[in-house]
From TrEMBL:
Xref: InterPro entries: XtmA-like_N
Organism: Clostridium sporogenes
Domain PBSX phage terminase small subunit-like N-terminal residues, every copy: 1-58
Lineage top rank: taxon: Bacteria
Protein name, as recorded: Phage terminase small subunit
Length: 244
């Protein structure tokens, strides 16, 4: 047996229609004493914006008194979103703007967290150093003379690439940690309106990020020592080959 349809679902759209779309999901949720995430879901699933046939409040509604056409007054910021300016925006971009406009800020932040974590994993795959013999040689500059030409190469040794990975990874992890902290703070600021799923997310993240952090730092310090040792041995070998 399917779950019964909430009576607030139709009431929410009636309020949205009454205000001609010029009302936020948060305001509707407050009027109905409903979870804001439910309002956002109904707004997308039922395609509220497409159901509005014209600008302005319904016939007989006093919100339209003194406002010819029922739309926002000239110069009102609503004219940017609903007025002539949207004609200059590509249809695909307008669709994205509409979806982002009704999206829960907490969900926006969660998407940023997922994206940042995915970038870290992808970065590790791209910048992975196979071994200490993993050396990259790239042509940096070519010079041409009357009788001969010369080429200048940039060489990256394994420890250089690994050091770059460690530095980049540390910065990326710090950004991720800040996003998670911001998410946690936003959750507690809106604790009565967030879903259980949103609450559980941050707890899982804390377990995944905070606990392995000490282990990661130890591995990072060990890796740095190994890189310094290899760099020292290489410099020592190169100095021995020099002719004084």
């Amino acid at each position: 047996m399917g779950r019964q349809r909430s009576p607030n679902r139709d009431k929410a759209f009636q309020i949205y229609n009454k205000y001609n779309g010029h009302i936020t999901s948060k305001e509707i949720a407050k009027l109905l004493n409903e979870n804001i995430n439910n309002i956002n879901n109904w707004r997308v699933q039922d395609k509220w914006s497409k159901k509005l046939n014209k600008i302005g409040a319904p016939f007989g509604n006093k919100n339209a008194v003194g406002n010819k056409g029922g739309g926002a007054p000239k110069g009102n910021v609503n004219s940017f979103k609903y007025g002539k300016y949207t004609k200059r925006i590509p249809f695909a971009v307008k669709n994205i703007m509409e979806e982002l406009d009704i999206e829960d800020p907490i969900e926006k932040l969660w998407r940023s967290i997922c994206l940042q974590e995915a970038r870290i994993i992808y970065m590790q795959d791209i910048m992975h150093v196979k071994s200490k013999e993993d050396i990259t040689k790239e042509l940096k500059k070519t010079s041409y003379g009357d009788k001969m030409s010369s080429e200048e190469y940039e060489i990256q040794f394994a420890w250089d690439k690994e050091a770059n990975l460690i530095s980049t990874q540390s910065k990326a992890l710090n950004i991720l940690a800040k996003l998670i902290k911001q998410y946690d703070e936003m959750l507690h600021a809106n604790w009565d309106t967030v879903t259980e799923e949103q609450k559980l997310r941050v707890e899982r993240l804390k377990v995944q990020i905070q606990n392995p952090e000490l282990k990661y730092r130890k591995e990072q310090d060990s890796m740095k020592l190994e890189l310094e040792k290899e760099r020292f041995e290489h410099t020592k070998a190169m100095d021995a080959m020099k002719v004084w």
